[in-house]
Amino acid sequence: MKKSQVHNQRSKPLVVFVSTFPPRQCGIGTYTHDLTIAIDELHSQLESRIIAMNVEELVSDRYPRKVLAQISEPKLADYQDVARQLNALPQVVLISVQHEFGIFGGEYGIYLLHFLELLTKPAIITFHTVLPSPSKQFLEVVRRLTNLVKGIIVMTRRSADILKEDYGISGDKIHTVPHGIHFLPYTDGVAPKKSLQLSNRFVLSTFGFLSRGKGIEYVIEALPQVVQRLPNLIYLVIGATHPTVLRDEGEEYRRMLMRKVYELGLASHVRFYNRYLPLKELLQFLQATDIYIATSLNPDHAVSGTLCYALGAGRPVISTAFAQAKEYVTEEVGALVDFRSPQAYAQAILALTQNNELRLQKGKHAYFRTRSMIWPNVAITYMRVFVQYLPGLNLEDKTLPPIKLAHLMHLSDSFGILQFANLAEPNPEFGYTVDDNARALAVAVSLASASRRFTRLAASRLASASICFNRRSCASSAVKPATRWSSRCCSATRPSAT
């Protein structure tokens, strides 16, 4: 069977994503992988499938079953064959093109136009990069692409404005959906640091594919004056060299960075992780980070998934003033610095290292401001776009996520559930309330048949609620930790009722 031949699968209605896809190492592929998982978990009435953009035979036989077919980037016939086959499949109801110049063949990715011109199914395009002030040829290709699709998705307000102002595209077709992030509980970083053997270190980090456009050298050059004041500082440069860079010049850029580290006497303050980290490990590194450094040298850089991940982990960010950073990295969550300026990096890093309260406050602001960006919420926003072009789709027909009780259990002790928490950490100062424990009792009772653990939880919550009633059936609305109960209402020898 040809790799460009679509497997005819009997299934629910399909939304087909045209994108790179794992195991090919590519940020767009990672994005599409995470997005399709979130959409599949949210809506049982649809299923997602993939047309994988491929350039390396190395991965062509290792794609998951979710991949219907492959398009070899430089082969125009593949684009045409796959378009015709998708047209012939009645279960395919929508095509979502994840667009980045460089993953589609032909000058300016023009082979994608041939695919869309043949396609009879409705299509939506997501632009991961939107460049301002386009050349005549660039402008023409983007306009032709947008004329061939029903809707356009971008990830920042700035990208939407550029499409309208520089490309003359109607705002009626443009939808802004933020880049997705993985949910992480907020943490102070102590446990992740211990797990990664970084305890007692002040951690800076940058992650992503390594290339000369990263500008890592300017951070390294800033560190000598920083470590004079903060000798326990360590800067983690996390990520493999970009596959294209590795093919064209090998590890020359990484070797240059390592030479600079040794020349500046920073061997104990800079650590390189030259590999593509699994998601779980990557997120752990982010949680262990005190300040994230976004270093792009491209002022027109439209979207940085790494920046989004760092903000979503609740980390303050110091970033160069590239396009997305100017929208996302406000004074509330971090600081912007000039391009190629070690001095600007040093000043910004020192300002945050010398004021722990300010640094933690910025991180918390970053965490709260990114809740709309967790993948389930991004999937909902995508579906709101899809439904405009699929009238039969019912947005209310969602699959409820599995119940997670880890936080409920974390807030509970042997007496009951605490009234307040500082983000994810229990705050025992204000004790317990009857209404909170009554709700916890209702949850525990409803789940008691599933596990003895919940039976015990239900018994505990029933006991704590009953303690809050005296012999006259006088309810105490709150119970505070103390040595004994208030004699006015209760006679037990635990917390005091108020």
Question: Layout of helices and strands, plus pairs?
Answer:
Layout: E1 14-19, H1 27-42, E2 47-54, H2 57-60, E3 67-72, H3 76-87, E4 92-99, H4 111-118, E5 123-127, H5 136-147, E6 151-154, H6 157-165, E7 174-176, H7 190-195, E8 202-207, H8 216-229, E9 233-238, H9 243-249, H10 252-263, E10 270-273, H11 279-287, E11 291-294, H12 305-312, E12 317-320, H13 323-328, E13 334-337, H14 342-353, H15 356-369, H16 375-386, H17 406-410, E14 418-422, E15 425-433, H18 434-447, H19 452-467, E16 478-480, E17 496-497
Parallel strand pairs: 1-2, 1-4, 2-3, 4-5, 5-6, 6-7, 8-9, 8-11, 9-10, 11-12, 12-13
Antiparallel strand pairs: 14-15, 15-16, 16-17
